Amino acid sequence: MKIETIAIHAGNHVDETSKAAIQPIVMATTFERNPEGGYDSGYSYSRAANPNRSALENVLAQLEGGAEAAAFSSGNAAGMSVFQALEPGTHIICPDDMYHGLRNQLKTLFKGILEFDFIDVNHAEILKAHIKPNTGLIWLETPSNPLLKITDIKMVAAIAAAQNIKVVCDNTFATPLCQRPLALGADLVMHSTTKYFGGHSDLMGGALITKETNEFWEKIRNVQTMGGAIPSPMDCYYLVRSIKTLPYRIKGHVHNAQLLAEYLENHDSVEEVLYPGLQSHPQYAIAKAQMTGYGAVLSFTLKAGEAEAKRVVNRVEIFTQATSLGGVESLIEHRASIEGPDTKTPFNLLRVSVGLEHIDDLIADLEQAMG
Ligand SMILES: *Cc1c(COP(=O)(O)O)cnc(C)c1O
């Protein structure tokens, strides 16, 4: 089946009892045992599994072409489950511009438990030089946040596989519509479903999808059900509902992002536009080879510097000055302000999450804000 069809059908089934065409929300925390003490439906207690979560996990696994998925209450909870599933003392290699929330998580919550290096993972020689006997995992995020750097997933996966190291790819910015990391050699995919999967800036969630079920995946499942950072049945329901339109939303987002990037690239006030769909992007060739669309987050720097960047975010009218991404509404933010003192993000940089408004209105809004 094609991805548009999977998005609509893989998370839904007609309810056996009521014949409701859309799967009902099962709020129950507990399920009745049969006389022998077993569970006829396979469900016993909702922390372990719930029908709405199973439906969500099913559609997520199929969208990424994986064997199974595990849904979490946030993207950070999903990421943390991977780190918790590693043996203490394991060394992990992460991108130097890893999503700041996960970078901070490693530095604070896993200090003294795991070893980590933040490096340029797209550089084969640098990557090989950092692999140690206890390296168990390479974390990727491509396109990255907020510099939109691209990592060659196949290249990293080949280096990792040769040394029995697992590769996890944070695919939040790309979504499976633009990039399928498992097909490119990654072992696990991570998502903040708060972003494009939810798509309406009104729910938080995270997910992991595995290429195959194995011992490491069993550990992650244990972290999910014993740790309990699971999404509510309501959140699972809303996610399954939103995912049905994901393929068409992404088409619209990507279309608008490309046009906005081209507009900005030709604007006199703009120093540089960072978007993998532009031929001027330093890794355009890798993006073109591994992506089927270039996502809808872009960053740009202003020639006039930080003060002007902060003025622009205060002058926009259609864009909302806010963090996050992936919703139908366009957002803009001064990224360095949110990332804190150890940020590597330039201070004249603005990050945009391109929404689904008409592109002419978005361009007109930035035109007046930068005018
Ligand atoms: C938002 C985000 C996360 C964290 O997800 P939450 O749902 O906010 O916990 C991780 N990685 C990327 C790339 C993100 O954009």
From TrEMBL:
InterPro entries: Cys/Met-Metab_PyrdxlP-dep_enz, Cys_met_metab_PP, PyrdxlP-dep_Trfase, PyrdxlP-dep_Trfase_major, PyrdxlP-dep_Trfase_small. Belongs to the trans-sulfuration enzymes family. It comes from the Bacteria. It holds the Pfam family Cys_Met_Meta_PP. The lineage of its organism: Bacteria, Pseudomonadati, Bacteroidota, Sphingobacteriia, Sphingobacteriales. The keyword Lipoprotein does not apply. This is Aminotransferase class I/II-fold pyridoxal phosphate-dependent enzyme. One of its GO terms (biological process) is transsulfuration. Keywords: Aminotransferase, Pyridoxal phosphate, Transferase. One of its GO terms (cellular component) is cytoplasm. SUPFAM superfamilies: PLP-dependent transferases. It comes from Mucilaginibacter glaciei.
